[in-house]
């Protein structure tokens, strides 16, 4: 080939390169135009706060942007890494071109660590020629992800003066990588220059997208936190539009968890007139409101809520809406009622034996000479006084036990080997002579043959459990009938006790309260029966401190009740978790 031919060949190559460069420049210009449009779109989305849909669309657009960048510099993969000022690390942003989901979840490097850290810290481009031979930390990590080579430039966001267009602030937010030069080639300085030019506009979009993602994540975290509240939360704008309603509030107002709020106002979603009037007052008067309301749900069950609304204001002090918290205080109100009823009941219970004692002692004192009453009458009077004193002592002991539990005083069980069969026989014999047993009562017991004779328990507390439950069966069977104690094996290590009667029975609602403090069934048949609701509460805790369980079953009012409790044959090893009955019950 002569000199002229060489020159012509060189001119042809130069012409081809110029043509290729012109095409790439045109592509870059088009890309810059697309980037500016995308940036404006992201800013608009951020201002309008349409997180879920906009974020998904934004990620797709960013993915197309990265595809164009990789195509222009002839790379197979593209990735941007964002700087986290809190951890001082660079982490892989989303989306990432050419990588599978989850591959980059733990991909983080320090500010000056590896090629990525150097690029960020120095704000200078980096060429990674071969990941297999490069000793930098992230090069080894890139190699595991199928990366052979790559180029990186810093992502620099510039803030310009609106009038002069001069750069007034420059900030490096991360780096962008393009990997795996196509056709087996390597990246050169011209590729770096192209990527650097494209990164200027891409940085603004990525920065805005990262900020938008952070806002969306924080909003989702806030939503999850408020949605987990047990109290109902409703946030209402000044125009009455419901901006947020958590799961608890949706349940209160009968809305499905997935039901969209749309642009509906509170008066469209809240049907209760009292609640609406509270919200109207909070919005119209621009004041905090605290009210108690009773709301009836779709099943005609009424619950009491305390509404506390707070005015929400912007930085200028102008009202933008109100936030209302709905706290369910139904149980607190029930406890108040129970306490009121308890005080009344205890007053009556204390007065009854005291009246009898006072009456008979006064009668006996009237007989100064000892001639008014026969010896048998005096013994009868003394017997009545003795029984009333015992009754008074039982009531006081119950009250003291409850006080010890709530005050945190130790009530440790004294576990030892006890003779189960003998204790059951003894308890039934005593209850056969109790004041609760009438002539028309039949009281018996049955112990299965496979029930062991010896168990590990606190003998005194075990007797109290039996006496209380058997006594309740007798007491709440005013018309008599059979009261039967059945002892059997529930499983190979647990004994089950069942005390059944033919008495007044229980409603399904009261069965759920059985064993709660001060709980007594309220119906016309048992109002004349003495009791405070303390005994079953103490028994339940005595059973639980034995690592057992207690419950009751009944087919309804007038159909009798069966009270069950279980005890283990052998108590588990003490791991310190059952330090005392009081700490277990009180809290």
Look at the structure and give the mean pLDDT: 80
Rg, Cα atoms, Å: 41 Å
Q: Which secondary-structure class do the elements indicate?
A: alpha+beta
Which ranges are low-confidence, i.e. pLDDT below 50, for 5 or more consecutive residues? 41-51, 522-528, 577-587
Which sequence of strands runs across the widest sheet?
A: 3-2-1-6-5-4
Strand residues, percent: 15-25%
Main sheet attributes: strand count, strand direction, barrel closure: 6 strands, antiparallel
* Helical percentage: 40-55%
Q: What attributes does this structure have?
A:
single chain, 587 residues, alpha+beta, 46% helix, elongated
Structural features, described:
This protein is α+β, with helices and mostly antiparallel strands. Helix content is 46%, strand content 22%. It is built from 15 helices and 18 strands. The strands form four sheets. Strands 3-2-1-6-5-4 form a six-stranded antiparallel beta sheet, sandwiched between helices. A five-stranded antiparallel beta sheet has the order 8-7-11-10-9, sandwiched between helices. β7 (232-237) and β8 (242-245) form a beta hairpin. α1 (3-48) packs antiparallel against α2 and α9 (330-366) runs antiparallel to α10 (375-407). The chain is elongated and about 155 Å long. It starts with a helix and ends with a helix. The model is unreliable at 41-51, 522-528 and 577-587 (pLDDT under 50).
In short:
The chain is an alpha+beta fold. The chain is 46% helix and 22% strand. The protein has a 6-stranded antiparallel β-sheet, sandwiched between helices.
